[in-house]
Amino acid sequence: MRTEQPKMIYLKDYQAPEYLIDETHLTFELFEDHTLVHAQLLMRRNPVRGAGLPPLVLDGQLLELLSVSLDDRELGAADYQLDENHLTLQPSGNSFTVDTSVKIHPESNTALEGLYKSSGMFCTQCEAEGFRKITYYLDRPDVMSTFTTTIIAEQHQYPVLLSNGNPIGSGPQEDGRHWATWEDPFMKPAYLFALVAGDLWCVEDSFTTMTGRDVALRIYVEPENIDKCQHAMNSLKKSMRWDEEVYGREYDLDIFMIVAVNDFNMGAMENKGLNIFNSSAVLARAETATDAAHQRVEAIVAHEYFHNWSGNRVTCRDWFQLSLKEGFTVFRDAGFSSDMNSRTVKRIQDVAYLRTHQFAEDAGPMAHAVRPDSFIEISNFYTLTVYEKGSEVVGMIHTLLGAEGFRKGSDLYFERHDGQAVTCDDFVKAMEDANGVDLTQFKRWYSQAGTPRLAVSERYDAQAQTYSLTFRQSCPQTPDKQEKLPFVIPVELGLLDARGAEIALQLAGEAAPGATSRVLSVSEAEQTFTFVGIAAKPLPSLLRGFSAPVKLSFPYDRDQLMFLMQHDRDGFNRWDAGQQLSVQVLQDLIGQHQQGQELVLDQRLVVALRSVLANDQLDQAMVAEMLSLPSEAYLTEISEVAQVDSIHAAREFARQQLAEQLFDSLWQRYQANREVSKNTAYIAENEHFARRALQNIALSYLMLSGKPQVLAATLEQFDAADNMTERLTALAVLVNSPFEAEKAKALAVFAEHFKDNPLVMDQWFSVQAGSTLPGGLERVKALMEHPAFTLRNPNKVRALIGAFAGQNLINFHAADGSGYRFLADIVIQLNALNPQIASRQLAPLTRWRKYDKARQALMKAELERIRASGELSADVYEVVSKSLA
Ligand code: B3K
Ligand code: ZN
């Protein structure tokens, strides 16, 4: 906890470090009630900072200093200054050695940052600024050092002792303790440091790199999870091969390790050679993890592995550059997942997520640029903007340069900056230099916050046979009050003729028609492109593949959208046309509900979805995606003022209508797919994911009919499924149904069967937290009393509290403010336990401007109450104060 008012830190104040650390030698003595950390730092004056020897200011927090020496001379209290965050010494030469010993308390560290204990094992999380909770250090990413790490611990309880790099020695001591030493020869910043000590088993494999080196691969888990590692291991080997093939990147150490821990603030961490993972991002097998969980494990294993180059070998100069490694690495993992599964479905899911959640962030009080220019607490900036929008920005560079040009740029980037800590500008510069292009204007994507709007209008001239598209871009005001200049927006498009065929495109001034799909670069506030040789008025297919993270509008009517759903050659845009049609239809219903009218569903939506369901040529995962109506969260995001009750009522009404009118086709496809599932062993592969996706969304519609044969089918699937995807869907369908007895029984059977598996229990919590039936808050409060629940485990908090406030909008936004009060109470408790998790859970309250006046007042009152609740962590302070500003 802070004692001073947290301070704002600015990118413009960046200065290179005064001193550098060439070698770091650490010894950890782990005990049950404390840990001793001895650090020896071989340091020197940073030559770029010129002559003179200013004081050396080391970062350190929550450390009990036992001793400090400078060049082997132990310092007395008069020789240094100590405050809550720093240890300051006066060096007397250009090169010197600092030795410190500190005492820390991992056993009582509930913030899960620095060194802490999880389920009896020791582990670390240092990014962004956790290393300063381990020892005094220059804890900033532009200070890079080699590390040797010795760990000493009791042998029986902690037989496995791990750190970064390669193992160079180990042995017993006389007192029942043992030691191990690891050496990491690659220069790295402290945020990539890791240590693990515990009673772990491991699954082993190996990988031969493209130059023929053998790398040992190990996944360490608690003994009871040893049967759930194979999927992660397969994913790791695929990632290593893919990064060689697609980016030419080879792994560098002799060993690569992953350790799964139960208490972890996010998904995983890319520490050099020793990735530490939330167990939810490693463990997966058919009986306990859904298809979505399998895909998430594959993606996160890949993401962390890819960081070895985009993040570790080339790292960030300062934390404002976070998207340098995160945006690029998300882009890389998305490419990998697309190659492993379905590119179109991956794109649909990513875009739906971005539009719902990142767009909301970009329109709220925490809006910031992909490269923010200020922050109070960096942990608050591991955001959808830095990650997902950052990935979109890299993706636009890829679109503008083409695959080959992009690869030239990434090769140059890695070659030029290997071993360095660099900036987003350096990344773009490599792309420019490798391709001989100028991306100066494009770089506004890094510095301007907010989601650009792109309004498109058309004009057809029958006489001249020309077709013009005019693009007008604008960007809404964000809290930084920054003036927004035009972005470079790559718009991929095609034109369809009346039969749905693609027209070869020729812009005015071009010699001949060319491809049928092309990228226009819109770079002015208003810009017109004219196509020639267009025999009849075409229908445009715009922003194919979602080629830029903008809100595009074009005045399509519903028949045109249905036409695009049928004929667009771009799979993403076929889906998107369906979404736009659904949005229009749902907005009608929302309006009707607002005015107290009877709800009437536009039959065109039924017709469109009936033909999707009847098309057995379509990828089944696509059918499932097209059947999914826009979520309540998305409908909220696109509303001026979100009418919580009307949005819910409208969407439920549409689902009910679709279920009734499409019952026969849904039932037929459900049964066919369930039949295949019954006769096929579970396989975590694309075509099987697709089959189950369609089967499961069909079941969730069918249950709305309340027909006895559907209840029977649901119970059959719940009882007999050999995998969690089918079982959990059946459970969720029951939980949202009116069949109280069956629901209660299924919940009890499930909990009894899986009570010893915390990750499965998380799903059990989530399914109930997400139930939109009345009484949601009471159910969540009762579940908090369940023995499997604890506020100390981030996965549990996310599964119950996060799912309730983030997905159960009708209950969370109850008009009496009870949901808000509940969330504020939780945040106040979490603030003291785990500030990072507290501040994440706050997000729904920060969106108060979206709601009606009464709800706004209630939400703000809760933010005020948090602000006044006592000593706030910097994390919570920043979010609360910006939300109320
Ligand atoms: N780099 C880590 C995130 C660390 C977050 C610290 N609060 C995981 C990742 O993006 O790979
Ligand atoms: Zn990352």
UniProtKB/TrEMBL annotation:
A single GO molecular function term of this UniProt record: alanyl aminopeptidase activity
Limits of the Peptidase M1 membrane alanine aminopeptidase domain: 232-445
Listed Gene3D superfamilies: 2.60.40.1840, 3.30.2010.30, Neutral Protease Domain 2, Peptidase M1, alanyl aminopeptidase, C-terminal domain, tricorn interacting facor f3 domain
Pfam families per UniProt: DUF3458 (PF11940), DUF3458_C (PF17432), Peptidase_M1 (PF01433), Peptidase_M1_N (PF17900)
TM segment ranges: none
Catalytic activity, EC: 3.4.11.2
Sorted UniProt keywords: Aminopeptidase, Hydrolase, Metal-binding, Metalloprotease, Protease, Zinc
Needed cofactors: Zn(2+)
Keyword Repressor attributed: no
GO biological process, one term: proteolysis
Peptidase M1 alanyl aminopeptidase Ig-like fold domain span: 450-553
Family: Belongs to the peptidase M1 family.
Name of the featured protein: Aminopeptidase N
Organism (species): Pseudomonas vanderleydeniana
Higher taxonomy: Bacteria, Pseudomonadati, Pseudomonadota, Gammaproteobacteria, Pseudomonadales
Gene responsible for this protein: pepN
